[in-house]
Amino acid sequence: MRKPAKRVFLAALCSVCQALQGGMLFPTESPSREVKDASGLWSFRADLSPERSRGFEQQWYRKPLAETGPVIDMPVPSSFNDITQDAKIRDFIGWVWYEKDVWVPARWIQDRGTRIVLRVGSAHYYSVLWVNGVKVAEHVGGHLPFEADISGVLRQTSGSACRITIAVNNTLTLETLPPGTIQYMNDRSRYPAGYFVQNTNFDFFNYAGIHRSVLVYTTPKAHIDDITVETTFSDNIGLVSFNVSVLGSSKPAVKVTLSAQDGRCVASADGSRGVLKVTDVNLWWPYLMHENPAYLYSMEVQATAEDGQTDVYTLAVGIRTVKVTSTQFLINNKPFYFHGVNKHEDADIRGKGFDWPLVVKDFNLMKWMGVNSFRPSHYPYAEEILQMADRHGIVIIDECPGVGIRDIRSFGNVSLAHHLTVMEELVRRDKNHPSVVMWSVANEPASEMPPAGFYFKELVSHTKSLDSSRPVTYITASNYARDLGAPYVDVICVNSYLSWYHDPGHTELISLQLNTQFDDWYGKYQKPIIQSEYGADAVPGLHSDPPMMFTEEYQTTVLQNYHNVFDQKRKEFVIGELIWNFADFMTTQTITRVVGNKKGIFTRQRQPKSGAFLLRERYWRIANETGVLPTWARYPCL
Ligand SMILES: Cc1cc(=O)oc2cc(O[C@@H]3O[C@H](C(=O)O)[C@@H](O)[C@H](O)[C@H]3O)ccc12
């Protein structure tokens, strides 16, 4: 591989300073809005030039990509890495170029009261977006949406023909999230001139490309830009406070109507801010905690501008509260115990590309197992996944891509400013999901390093200023006595790999060491604790008795030893356990990974290992003990 263009790094630095403006509502159809999906086959070209800069030098965005050189078919959404037979594409670092022609209906162009927006669900990592050769947006960060108003460009260029060009760069630097470094290999006897590698401090494969849908959608010119809801209740009265921002009209008339699932209007109000009162409220409850979980109201917002045009947007609203005490996590004032999983957006061929069959299969598997919660580790997942969690009552700890912050240079001001911006983007996108009960600002940072105290103090307090209704945490693997960020979090989330990375093979030590881990953390902080990762690799089909590392028996033995301690400590202050990992996933190639990380309790193809049956039995038992189950769910094994 060759040296990437300097612009890779410079461009990433410039945009971190921009303040976040406007909302990021999920595009939906309504009487005033249309959505056109540009998913499908795109033209694709990796810039294989030594400096990765030919595309910019030759302005590939100015004409059809096929006229600049050879292109191949590339599905969107999908990672590009595993689509071809070419290892150069799989391991490519630098700029790749995507292009697709779409037609927008002529009436969208002709009606000057129509606003046309181009939205990319996510593209990893750094993107530049052109329409008909005109630059319309740039975005830093691989897991959150970005969009551009393209009405003007379309009206000034070729009308309803819309050539979308997206250049995406997957290079990670000390200031990106997640961070990484480019290492140049200068020993000419071993590496050719310009040879470099991308180093990271996380193990999942750095899949890249356009990972989520590209949508073209409309709103009226005067449109609902953002909606924020916060909910609470008292006795049988639910309260929904709302705040609607409208752009393009100085005095819009706003009407808000809340309907129950049977379509009955249960509350309404006029004005862009207010509180809706819902009598005989149906609260949003997690799966397996209530006989009628995941109840969602439908909130219709209408904004009518001075010229009489009305924009309509409908939002699903779950009414629930979240509170943390020194020993408990309360949802609707009742203790909630997280029995769940950590996941990855990861599958054969498509990599991190959004895929409905995979999403539905994963939710079916989670519900089969009695999972009531998951952490979308280690980055924000597709919005459709959060919508599924809302609809099925699966509780989410929403994590930003602050994974692998292990280099002291990644605790500087540029990194912090970017991290704050990413939290703004995350909260802006996910604030209205009832399933999201806590924000996680990072995973396993070097939180014992001197700058970590200030860094996490700022990060946690900024996140709380964005959303005061949810607790904030980060996931630590540091020693309890040296962790400098823990004073600022609401819940202590600890990862440990006893008898795996430490004392490998010695499962008999888990009980002693895990008891010590919990008592140390609780003794110092008196905050509730989640075991946010634990587990062991199991190569499916590998067996041994007595258990040996990498066999299914070893994985289940590790789990059982952890569970014995959890069962004691959940009577005190342990409020959750999240297995690492739901499924095997692809990693960078190293000597510790056998074609990926095998700590899944399911294979990458979603077939169960022994551990899945063990956890299923356990999670349903816990749910039977602690929850109020629907009749059908009381005896899941029959
Ligand atoms: C070398 C090492 C030691 C250790 O104690 O923990 C630890 C954790 C690591 O990463 C976390 O664990 C998972 C895993 O290794 O399977 C990762 O997949 C996960 O993303 C991490 O949060 C890595 C290395 C070590």
UniProtKB/TrEMBL annotation:
Cellular compartments annotated: Lysosome
Domain Glycoside hydrolase family 2 catalytic positions: 322-623
Any single biological process term in GO: carbohydrate metabolic process
Domain of life: Eukaryota
UniProt domain Glycoside hydrolase family 2 immunoglobulin-like beta-sandwich: residue ranges: 222-320
A Pfam family of this chain: Glyco_hydro_2_C
Domain Glycosyl hydrolases family 2 sugar binding: 38-220
Tagged with keyword Chaperone: no
Gene3D superfamilies reported in the protein's UniProt record: Galactose-binding domain-like (2.60.120.260), Glycosidases (3.20.20.80), Immunoglobulins (2.60.40.10)
Keywords: Glycoprotein, Glycosidase, Hydrolase, Lysosome, Signal
GO CC terms in record: extracellular space; lysosome
Enzyme class, broadest EC rank: hydrolase
Gene Ontology terms, MF aspect: beta-glucuronidase activity; carbohydrate binding
Signal peptide stretch: 1-19
Chief location: other
EC number(s) per entry: 3.2.1.31
Subunit description: Homotetramer.
Purpose of the protein: Plays an important role in the degradation of dermatan and keratan sulfates.
Family indicated by similarity: Belongs to the glycosyl hydrolase 2 family.
Protein name: Beta-glucuronidase
Encoding gene per record: LOC107701859
